[in-house]
Write a structure and sequence with these properties.
With 288 residues, the protein is α/β, with parallel strands linked by helices. It has eleven helices and six strands. The chain has two domains: 160 residues, 3-Layer(aba) Sandwich (Rossmann fold); 95 residues, Conserved Hypothetical Protein Ylqf, Chain: A, domain 2 (Orthogonal Bundle), CATH 1.10.1580. 44% of the residues lie in helices and 11% in strands. A six-stranded mixed sheet has the order 3-2-1-4-6-5, with helices on both faces. Bound molecules: guanosine-5'-triphosphate and magnesium ion.
């Protein structure tokens, strides 16, 4: 299958964004709080930089302390950044206040604030607008590609917001990026096999003792700290009766179960990226 990152569709959508950019006051770049760097479309950020505000959404699914570290990370880069969760009513009031505080100073009297919302698929762009609008005006869903075209919507605060379809980075060649983006539901067409996606999520969980313990407690009802991802998959499959012919563990079924639980937050808050890991990778790269 053709790599979704290469489709002409991406470039057409980017062009449309550039056309509206001059008519908006602020751009809300929505990232997934569990995966802020890999869920960032660098091309979009560069195109829209001047008016950019970053929102780390789905903060209810990410580890609080790590989200705090990411806020510092983006702040240190000189950006305006907030964390948010559509599940948290308090966060809504705070976001409204912060957006107002960041509006351009030269906004003409009586002209409504105009905001453009961008990001990769499934990070919650339409859900954030619905929350700000106080109604379910836009279709949302737990898969990428729900929003089909740009759509303006008037908010109860008088603002005008433009929802846009999710746009992936067009050169998505790095296999780890593809696994990670599939894990958070941003990539579907041409996605890697679910077993590999779950192996990747498990490798992230296994790398951190507290997450590994929590995972084992959830599935295996014990403190078992199985280090081998394949054995762990087998154990979960057996424990959850994901079995195929001859009583063999059905890996596909097991992986789907784990991915579903991860995405709905049943495994607890899990941040898949940490600033310290990224900094270590950069240091290793520079040493090599
Ligand atoms: N747990 C949690 N789920 C969220 C949050 N925000 C959105 N979601 C869910 O994430 C899924 C995607 O939300 P959408 O608003 O459709 O995402 P989108 O970015 O508009 O996606 P596209 O239109 O496909 O690009 C939906 O199932 C939402 O209910 C959040 O803060 N926390
Ligand atoms: Mg949408």
């Amino acid at each position: 299958m053709k790599d979704p990152g290469h489709s002409g569709h991406v470039f057409r959508e980017e062009k449309k964004l550039l056309q509206v950019l001059k008519h908006v006051d602020m751009v809300l770049e929505v990232l997934d709080a569990r995966l802020p760097l890999m869920s960032r479309n660098v091309r979009l950020r560069e195109m829209l930089a001047a008016k950019n505000v970053i929102i780390l959404n789905k903060a209810d699914l990410a580890e609080k302390s790590i989200t705090g570290q990411w806020l510092d990370f983006f702040y240190d880069e000189g950006g305006t950044v907030f964390s948010f969760s559509t599940k948290n009513p308090v966060a809504l009031k705070e976001l409204e206040k912060k957006l107002l505080a960041n509006r351009p100073r030269n906004l003409k009297f009586n002209r409504p604030l105009r905001l453009l919302v961008v990001g990769i698929p499934n990070v919650g762009k339409s859900s954030i607008i619905n929350r700000l609008a106080g109604k379910f005006a836009l279709k949302t869903g737990a898969r990428p590609g729900i929003t089909r075209g740009p759509q303006w919507l008037r908010m109860r605060q008088g603002w005008e917001m433009l929802d846009t379809p999710g746009i992936l980075y067009p050169y998505l060649r790095n296999e780890e990026n593809r696994l990670a983006l599939t894990a958070i539901g941003a990539l579907e067409k041409g996605a890697p096999p679910v077993e590999d996606v779950v192996r990747w999520v498990l490798s992230r969980i296994q790398a951190r003792e507290e997450l590994a313990r929590r995972f084992s407690r959830f599935y295996l009802k014990g403190p078992g700290l199985e280090q081998n991802v394949e054995l762990l998959l087998q154990q979960v499959g057996r424990r959850r009766s994901c079995l195929g012919p001859g009583g063999m563990v059905d890996l596909h079924k097991t992986a789907n179960l784990i991915l579903h639980d991860f995405r709905r937050g049943a495994l607890g808050r899990i941040s898949l990226e940490r600033p310290e890991d990224v900094q270590k990778e950069i240091a290793a790269f520079q040493d090599s």
